[in-house]
Amino acid sequence: EGGSRRSSWGLLVTAGVGGTLVALYAVATPFVAPALRKVCLPFVPATSAQIQNVLKMLENRSGSLVDIGSGDGRIVIAAAKRGFKAVGYELNPWLVWYSRYRAWRDGVHQNTRFYISDLWKVSFSHYKNVVVFGVPQMMPQLEKKLEEELECNARIIACRFPFPCWIPDHTTGEGIDTVWAYDLKRSRGCETKSLEITPKAES
Hints:
The protein has helices spanning 2-32, 48-57, 74-81, 93-105, 139-149, 184-188, 190-197; strands spanning 64-68, 85-90, 112-116, 129-133, 155-159, 170-172, 179-183. It is an alpha/beta fold. It has a domain at 48-184: 3-Layer(aba) Sandwich (Rossmann fold), CATH 3.40.50. It has a 7-stranded mixed β-sheet. Strand 2 (85-90), helix 4 and strand 3 form a beta-alpha-beta unit. Its main location: mitochondrion. It is a single-pass membrane protein. It comes from Columbina picui (Picui ground-dove). Keywords: Membrane, Methyltransferase, Mitochondrion, S-adenosyl-L-methionine, Transferase, Transmembrane, Transmembrane helix.
């Protein structure tokens, strides 16, 4: 009888441990999987100072906005509260679901959208304002992608790490809260090109 009880307890413990491991795997996989990619975009929450610096760079701007690697949605939600139609792309489904809940809780769910997607598989061509929380390894490739896709009137705002080739038009903040803003029309020389093709008025 004692052996039977020990056997039953052993099965219960084994089942409990196994169930716990399965649950941990289900929860942890979306967080760990991005780190296994060649270029990962880890989740590091934006600080209050970073959010305010991003909003400062969006002053006098309008149009659609996208946050690449939107995490828990705080940048998208803050932008929506300022009147932007804001979208976030995030690879981690748990963070996307949480972002949607936060947007609903804060009453801006009608002006926000969150998508579970790999940023390299998304076209950002129809956005006028782009916010990026990147890592150094991805910035050169992302710089090229955005330059190919975005229109001349787009503004790209980089947080924590600047782009390697572009020269920022505006910079604010210090340390990890530094934010760089790039107006694509200057990076491409669109203003110069438009002047060159404008016909001279006849005297």
